[in-house]
Write a sequence for this structure.
């Protein structure tokens, strides 16, 4: 995004970004939308779609070029995530989890770790990875995690469990956060990379979810899992800071996915409101409906601008957790309202699976929950306002 216009801020995408946007939009139209209903009904994992996306450079987006990836910036990611979210946010989530899972390694790993886990494994072998933070009794409260990593004879022994983990059944390795020193609270958390086939790891079956059913979500348990010390990412005790930095980089992409769902619902409503007539005129001409759709359009545009701002700040190394929280909270909440209103615009038809808006409503709810709830985003905003 060209933010250096001579007399102010430019909102024009670069030619490369326009090409990336078109690539993602065409992929969503050809590969995702035609099969989204099928994956929603069956809850199958869309591995073939993920592989097609990888071949086009739409998976592993943020892995730097020196490790074989596209080297996309966060702003590029949000462009792609809006388009994929427009197609199906469940499939989009399955495609984008590697972006999240690679971040701890990118931000805190050694050169050797980056070359192996990012270059050889994710790019070279096409491995999927999972990001493991949330626990049954510690979701938003990261400091409350109970999973322990005890150092014994030059290695770590990990015990505990993580829940609601995306892609975990189909991943070859995991980036896992665990407590190495309980006495130090948030300064006692560390991060590790763990191979999927390490003895002592067990994974539950795929959870049966309300929405985003194409995205695998399950629980993982660690029982005396031995992890080499060289698999620790960063220094001991740096895990909490690393996790928070990861969220600053990942949340703009999540916000963009919500923008995509909201935009899809808006466009479905515009199309339907032109065709559906009551009392002798198209329903968009009734103010109650027209204003509802106008509000959808306002919120889509506002959410996108907040998301673009958050991404631009991250790409320019300007730390602004408040702006990131603005984008994530507003985009998620706005998309939820948009999809609820979309069902209302469709009336009884909106409640039926024959039409797409009920799926959009089910899919988008989780945007208010994962990667930091809307309430947690407001906590961040309050903290920054009163700092």
């Amino acid at each position: 995004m060209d933010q250096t216009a001579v007399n102010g801020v430019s909102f024009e995408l670069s030619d490369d970004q326009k090409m990336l946007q078109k690539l993602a939009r065409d992929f969503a139209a050809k590969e995702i939308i035609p099969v989204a209903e099928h994956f929603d009904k069956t809850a199958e994992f869309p591995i073939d779609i993920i592989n097609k996306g990888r071949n086009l450079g739409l998976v592993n987006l943020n892995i730097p070029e020196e490790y074989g990836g596209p080297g996309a910036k966060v702003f590029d990611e949000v462009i792609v995530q809006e388009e994929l979210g427009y197609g199906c946010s469940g499939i989009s989530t399955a495609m984008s989890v590697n972006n999240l899972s690679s971040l701890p390694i990118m931000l805190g790993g050694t050169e050797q770790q980056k070359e192996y886990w990012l270059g050889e494994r994710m790019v070279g072998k096409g491995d999927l990875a999972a990001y493991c933070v949330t626990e049954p009794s510690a979701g938003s409260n990261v400091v409350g995690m109970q999973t322990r990593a005890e150092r014994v004879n030059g290695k770590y022994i990990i015990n505990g469990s993580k829940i609601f983990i995306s892609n975990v059944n189909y991943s070859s390795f995991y980036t896992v956060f665990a407590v190495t020193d309980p006495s130090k609270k948030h300064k006692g958390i560390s991060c590790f990379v763990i191979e999927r086939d390490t003895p002592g790891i067990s994974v539950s079956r795929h959870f049966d979810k309300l929405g985003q059913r194409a995205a695998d979500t399950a629980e993982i348990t660690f029982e005396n899992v031995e992890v080499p010390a060289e698999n620790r990412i960063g220094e001991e005790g740096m895990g909490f800071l690393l996790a928070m930095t990861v969220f600053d980089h990942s949340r703009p992409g999540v916000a963009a996915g919500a923008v995509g769902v909201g935009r899809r619902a808006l466009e479905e409503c515009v199309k339907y409101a032109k065709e559906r007539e009551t009392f002798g005129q198209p329903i968009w001409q009734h103010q109650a409906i027209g204003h509802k759709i106008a509000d959808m359009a306002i919120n889509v545009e506002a959410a996108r601008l907040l998301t673009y701002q958050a991404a631009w700040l991250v790409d320019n190394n300007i730390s602004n957790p408040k702006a990131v929280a603005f984008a994530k909270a507003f985009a998620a909440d706005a998309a939820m309202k948009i999809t609820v209103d979309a069902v209302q615009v469709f009336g009884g038809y909106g409640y039926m699976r024959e039409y797409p808006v009920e799926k959009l409503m089910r899919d988008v709810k989780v945007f208010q929950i994962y990667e930091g709830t809307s309430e947690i985003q407001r906590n961040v905003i309050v903290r920054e306002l009163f700092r």
